[in-house]
């Protein structure tokens, strides 16, 4: 299994786990507050779907940044 395939499997797994955790957190968070403010800019309703999507989107961006840094470091090493 190549390095890129390993990163892909890890990335997909993390995004799926983030979505599953978002469903559980959204389910329980709805009992505490109707919505939450994110960074003072975005109002997110405390529903399972909203939290799952938010968790998955944040995970995708974080992993893309990390994997991009790994790719950059790999190219520097080869040069």
UniProtKB/TrEMBL annotation:
Transmembrane segments: 7-26, 46-70
Keywords attached to this entry: Membrane, Transmembrane, Transmembrane helix
Superkingdom of the source species: Archaea
Name of the protein described by the UniProt record: Cox cluster protein
Organism: Haloferax larsenii
């Amino acid at each position: 299994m190549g390095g890129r395939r390993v990163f892909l499997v890890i990335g997909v797994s993390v995004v799926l786990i983030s979505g599953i955790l978002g469903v559980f957190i959204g389910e329980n968070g709805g009992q505490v507050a109707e919505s939450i403010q994110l960074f003072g800019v975005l109002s997110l309703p405390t529903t399972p779907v909203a939290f799952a999507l938010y968790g998955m989107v944040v995970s995708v961006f974080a992993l893309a940044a990390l994997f991009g840094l790994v790719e950059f470091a790999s190219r520097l090493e080869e040069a």
